[in-house]
Amino acid sequence: MLALALQGHAPKALSALSAHDAFGRPKAGRSGSLPTLRTGRRKPRAASSAAAALVLAQALEAPGPVLFRLRLTCPEELELPEVAVSLAEGEVKESSPQRSPGCMEVTYTLQTPPNAQPQGLLRLGGSWAPICFAVPHGRSAAYVGHPGRTRYTALLTDSWDWRSAPKPSEGWAADLELGRGQLNLQLRRATQAEVKRCCQQQALREALEGSYDELFAQVTKARQQAVELEHLEKAEEKLKAMRKQRLHVAPNCSKEELRQLMAWARVTRTPEPAPQASLCPTAGCPCNQSLDGEVLSIQHDALSDFGPEADKEMFEMLVEAAISSEEGAVWPAGGKLIFSAFDRNQSVNALVRTLETAGQRRCAEMLLALAKAAGESAGGFVSAAQVNFHVDGSSFHDQHRDVYSAKQRAGPNCACSFRECVGTLCYSLGSSRLCRLRSMVDDLSFLRPCGETCRGYQEDRWLHSGDAMFFNALWNQNHTHGIPKMPGAGPRISVAFLLGAS
Q1: 9, 69, 179, 194: which has the fewest C-beta neighbours closer than 10 Å?
Q2: What are phi and psi of 45, to 5 degrees?
Q3: Half-sphere exposure at residue 499, Cβ-oriented, CA atoms within 13 angstroms
Q4: Could you tell me where the DSSP H helices lie in 173-281?
Q5: Taking the domains of the chain in order of start, what are their residue ranges?
Q6: pLDDT (tens digit, 9 = 90+) per residue, 266-319?
Q7: Span 278-406+414-501: which CATH code?
Q8: pLDDT attached to residue 394
Q9: Which of the 8 DSSP states describes residue 485?
Q10: Which ranges of the sequence are coiled-coil (predicted)?
């Protein structure tokens, strides 16, 4: 427990203050009224009261020392940190610390200039961020952590490389509470929620110097982790400023570019057979075999129930919706573009609202029908819908597993909220593209390598316009999939449904 006891006094003794304490409050047992100041000539009561109030104000604003006492305790496994206090204006004098096991007490004397509220920074040793504080002064209230707060929790974790490394799993918390002139602080181990919030605050702070897409994603994650409002507001202001500079419109994402690049007339079809699968040469390698329960299938003409050329119709409606939506609804992600609601919410409902707002009710109805059928066939429901735009053969989608739970690590700018899924159903519209399927032998997979030289299994399969590819959770756990670059290919759209467990 860290206790800060605050006591102020003015150097001038004024008789007009005899009924008040050092902060101008009436003393116990007194009426609290100011005494009348008498001179040779009796003044009216109103003038006398005004003069007394002026004397009182001058006394309160006069420079005077404030005693600042600290009492610090912490768990036995944590070494007592060094403590330092500094003022924005004025001087600090420190008494000799009094130490005992797990406890330290220090008294500081704060001397500030006239009219200056004693405020400054409390610094703990190590990598703790400074904690701002203020003591009462006139009508200025005391606070800790941020103005207006009487409770505050400071957090500390190891530095996190949030673009590539997993989050730290441990941290420390300092709980501060201000009341009746005393500040209590207790050091303890941080909860897992606090560790995540501290890490996300670091990512948000560093993303302020990055791109619009990076900052947008970290703001969304910061909200999910309940990062403090003042940090979110600062980031939101930066996003607004970047939008005014049109930094939210990435290359190939403007309305003019989409209209040109995503034209159906540029669609290419490739009828030739897919390349032969590449097997591990070791006989009996588990990578070359399908495990019981794995499901991977590709259905041709999966949109035929909606009529002839339904693939072309849906392709053109999605492109028109993207062009009609606010710029920023199409954004880059992992070698391709994503079309979503402007706030990048990728739920089915958010996508349907976006389509309807863009005047594409027929497309919204088709999407809802596909989502309903997908959920019923998998015995669950559609938890998310992602619409990917590939403008040409230079676009790609890296090899990846679909993220089916929070246990899996998504990309650094992925702000989706994940829940348990049972599979993925993806519709392909437009140009033919190869889909690369590759076995995995990492910690997430049930497959084990046949030896140190195991090469695994890889296969490329064509996805033509109107095809639908489905795989279940077990296949996703043991394999990755992706869309490699394909020079000469035209525009393509994929609509992927994540199927949540009922």
Answers
A1: 179
A2: -60, -40
A3: 22
A4: 192-207, 212-224, 229-244, 255-261
A5: 2-61, 71-244, 278-406+414-501
A6: 999 987 787 889 999 988 899 998 899 999 999 999 999 999 999 999 999 999
A7: 2.60.120.590
A8: 97
A9: -
A10: 205-245
